[in-house]
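By way of example, what follows is a protein record of this kind.
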Amino acid sequence: MPSRGKSQSARQGAQSTLAFGNKSRVTKPSLPILSAKKQAATSTVQVKTPDSPVVEVEAEPTAEDSVVQKQAEEEIHIVSRSPEEERAAKVSDVQLKRYWQQRESERKAPRVHQEGLTTHEKILRHFDLSAQYGPSVGIPRMKRWNRAHRLRLNPPVEVLAVLLKEDDKGNVRSERAHVDELLTSRFVTE
């Protein structure tokens, strides 16, 4: 039976041959040298494995950190003080502790493994794990709070107060959710 395809002359000029040479190679960009500000943001992480003693690993800011930081800065500087931010600025540390004690009293058992955390960090982690305000991975906390507020999900003003206080202190890491840090972390063991 004869073939029913196009003639060979029609197939020859249809598409050129693909060439995979050195010029079309796609590579990952190399990391730039860290500035003094970014070097200050690096932290040391202690890793302990069952077979070896504690190993200290230098945790460098990743590309995700810089994206989250940039989004957080944009979110903070979009509008001068909103009424919610004015209200959050008036929240005192005593009110924050009272808010956290109220959250703790709702639980049947005390939280485990949070003895070394500050009240601010506990409040932010609680906000991270509250799914009612939307996803927490890949979005800065300030942007997530503002998004939840725009959608009228009534996020706690105490979280905004903590975020503003941490931003005033210059704590860049407070913008990134703890779960997000765990998902994108890299551990090196010897």
Observations:
- The radius of gyration is 25 Å.
- The chain has a mean pLDDT of 77.
- The longest strand covers residues 43-47.
- The chain is about 45% helix and 5% strand.
